[in-house]
Write a structure and sequence with these properties.
Blueprint: H1 2-15, E1 24-26, H2 39-43, E2 48-49, E3 53-57, E4 66-68, H3 70-75, E5 89-93, E6 98-103, H4 109-113, E7 116-122, H5 137-141
Parallel strand pairs: 1-3, 2-7
Antiparallel strand pairs: 3-5, 4-6, 6-7
Length: 143
Protein backbone atom coordinates (compact mmCIF):
# COMPACT_ATOMS: atom_id res chain seq x y z
CA UNK A 1 0.00 0.00 0.00
CA UNK A 2 2.76 2.44 0.90
CA UNK A 3 4.62 1.64 -2.32
CA UNK A 4 1.46 2.38 -4.35
CA UNK A 5 1.18 5.73 -2.61
CA UNK A 6 4.85 6.49 -3.31
CA UNK A 7 4.43 5.66 -7.01
CA UNK A 8 1.31 7.81 -7.20
CA UNK A 9 3.13 10.70 -5.51
CA UNK A 10 6.05 10.43 -7.95
CA UNK A 11 3.71 10.37 -10.95
CA UNK A 12 1.89 13.44 -9.60
CA UNK A 13 5.14 15.35 -9.09
CA UNK A 14 6.36 14.50 -12.59
CA UNK A 15 3.06 15.48 -14.19
CA UNK A 16 2.51 18.64 -12.16
CA UNK A 17 4.91 20.92 -14.06
CA UNK A 18 3.20 20.03 -17.35
CA UNK A 19 -0.18 21.22 -16.07
CA UNK A 20 -0.80 24.78 -17.09
CA UNK A 21 -3.59 27.03 -16.00
CA UNK A 22 -5.54 28.91 -18.62
CA UNK A 23 -4.92 32.63 -18.84
CA UNK A 24 -7.58 35.24 -19.42
CA UNK A 25 -5.89 38.02 -21.38
CA UNK A 26 -7.43 41.47 -20.97
CA UNK A 27 -7.00 42.95 -24.44
CA UNK A 28 -5.13 46.24 -24.12
CA UNK A 29 -4.60 45.66 -20.39
CA UNK A 30 -5.79 48.78 -18.49
CA UNK A 31 -6.48 50.62 -21.77
CA UNK A 32 -9.07 48.05 -22.82
CA UNK A 33 -10.50 47.79 -26.34
CA UNK A 34 -10.33 51.31 -27.72
CA UNK A 35 -9.07 53.52 -30.51
CA UNK A 36 -5.57 55.04 -30.65
CA UNK A 37 -3.94 51.96 -29.13
CA UNK A 38 -1.34 49.67 -30.69
CA UNK A 39 -2.65 46.13 -30.29
CA UNK A 40 0.23 44.73 -32.34
CA UNK A 41 2.65 45.93 -29.67
CA UNK A 42 0.35 44.67 -26.92
CA UNK A 43 0.26 41.13 -28.35
CA UNK A 44 3.84 40.76 -29.60
CA UNK A 45 5.44 39.30 -26.45
CA UNK A 46 2.47 37.22 -25.30
CA UNK A 47 1.99 33.49 -25.82
CA UNK A 48 -1.68 32.67 -26.35
CA UNK A 49 -2.54 29.01 -25.78
CA UNK A 50 -5.53 26.81 -26.49
CA UNK A 51 -7.72 27.07 -23.38
CA UNK A 52 -6.86 30.72 -22.74
CA UNK A 53 -9.42 33.44 -23.38
CA UNK A 54 -9.50 37.06 -24.47
CA UNK A 55 -11.44 39.64 -22.46
CA UNK A 56 -12.47 42.71 -24.44
CA UNK A 57 -13.35 45.54 -22.02
CA UNK A 58 -14.94 48.72 -23.43
CA UNK A 59 -17.92 51.00 -23.00
CA UNK A 60 -20.89 49.25 -24.63
CA UNK A 61 -22.30 51.24 -27.51
CA UNK A 62 -18.95 52.87 -28.31
CA UNK A 63 -17.17 49.75 -29.53
CA UNK A 64 -17.85 46.12 -30.41
CA UNK A 65 -15.87 43.03 -31.39
CA UNK A 66 -16.00 40.92 -34.52
CA UNK A 67 -13.99 37.77 -35.13
CA UNK A 68 -12.98 37.97 -38.80
CA UNK A 69 -10.75 36.26 -41.36
CA UNK A 70 -7.49 37.65 -42.74
CA UNK A 71 -9.10 39.33 -45.76
CA UNK A 72 -11.68 41.14 -43.63
CA UNK A 73 -9.01 42.05 -41.08
CA UNK A 74 -6.76 43.61 -43.71
CA UNK A 75 -9.59 45.53 -45.40
CA UNK A 76 -11.52 46.28 -42.19
CA UNK A 77 -14.62 44.71 -43.74
CA UNK A 78 -17.36 44.76 -41.13
CA UNK A 79 -19.49 41.59 -40.86
CA UNK A 80 -23.27 41.78 -40.37
CA UNK A 81 -24.23 43.54 -37.11
CA UNK A 82 -25.85 40.41 -35.65
CA UNK A 83 -22.36 38.80 -35.50
CA UNK A 84 -21.00 41.52 -33.18
CA UNK A 85 -20.11 40.99 -29.56
CA UNK A 86 -21.24 44.18 -27.87
CA UNK A 87 -21.63 43.73 -24.11
CA UNK A 88 -18.57 45.78 -23.18
CA UNK A 89 -17.17 42.77 -21.33
CA UNK A 90 -16.83 40.12 -24.03
CA UNK A 91 -14.92 36.91 -23.30
CA UNK A 92 -13.73 34.85 -26.27
CA UNK A 93 -12.35 31.39 -25.48
CA UNK A 94 -9.37 30.35 -27.59
CA UNK A 95 -10.37 26.80 -28.45
CA UNK A 96 -8.16 25.99 -31.46
CA UNK A 97 -4.59 26.78 -32.48
CA UNK A 98 -3.86 29.17 -35.33
CA UNK A 99 -4.04 32.83 -36.25
CA UNK A 100 -7.08 34.78 -35.01
CA UNK A 101 -8.22 38.24 -36.10
CA UNK A 102 -10.55 40.69 -34.32
CA UNK A 103 -11.79 44.16 -35.30
CA UNK A 104 -14.12 46.87 -34.03
CA UNK A 105 -17.06 47.48 -36.36
CA UNK A 106 -18.11 50.90 -35.08
CA UNK A 107 -17.66 53.71 -37.62
CA UNK A 108 -14.11 53.78 -38.94
CA UNK A 109 -12.50 52.50 -35.73
CA UNK A 110 -10.77 49.66 -37.56
CA UNK A 111 -9.77 51.48 -40.75
CA UNK A 112 -8.83 54.89 -39.36
CA UNK A 113 -7.94 54.19 -35.74
CA UNK A 114 -6.32 50.73 -35.97
CA UNK A 115 -8.75 49.07 -33.54
CA UNK A 116 -7.83 45.56 -34.58
CA UNK A 117 -6.01 42.63 -33.05
CA UNK A 118 -4.12 39.72 -34.60
CA UNK A 119 -2.89 36.87 -32.40
CA UNK A 120 -1.48 33.39 -32.87
CA UNK A 121 -2.79 30.65 -30.59
CA UNK A 122 -0.53 27.67 -29.92
CA UNK A 123 -1.59 24.19 -28.89
CA UNK A 124 -1.03 23.29 -25.23
CA UNK A 125 0.67 20.06 -26.31
CA UNK A 126 3.47 21.93 -28.07
CA UNK A 127 6.82 22.26 -26.36
CA UNK A 128 8.14 25.43 -24.79
CA UNK A 129 6.74 28.58 -26.31
CA UNK A 130 8.75 30.20 -29.05
CA UNK A 131 8.80 33.95 -29.56
CA UNK A 132 6.04 35.19 -31.88
CA UNK A 133 6.86 34.90 -35.56
CA UNK A 134 7.92 37.98 -37.45
CA UNK A 135 5.02 39.67 -39.26
CA UNK A 136 4.41 38.47 -42.77
CA UNK A 137 4.20 41.01 -45.60
CA UNK A 138 0.40 40.76 -45.49
CA UNK A 139 0.44 41.40 -41.72
CA UNK A 140 2.52 44.55 -42.07
CA UNK A 141 -0.04 45.99 -44.51
CA UNK A 142 -2.74 45.43 -41.91
CA UNK A 143 -1.13 47.71 -39.31
Amino acid sequence: MASQFAILAIVALVALPSVSLATQWTVGDDNGWTIYYNYTDWAKDKVFRVGDSLLFNYQAGYHNVFKVNLTDFQACNIPPAYEALATGHDVIPLMTPGVKWYICGIGQHCANFNQKLRITVVDNTEGPALPPAAPTPSDSRAK
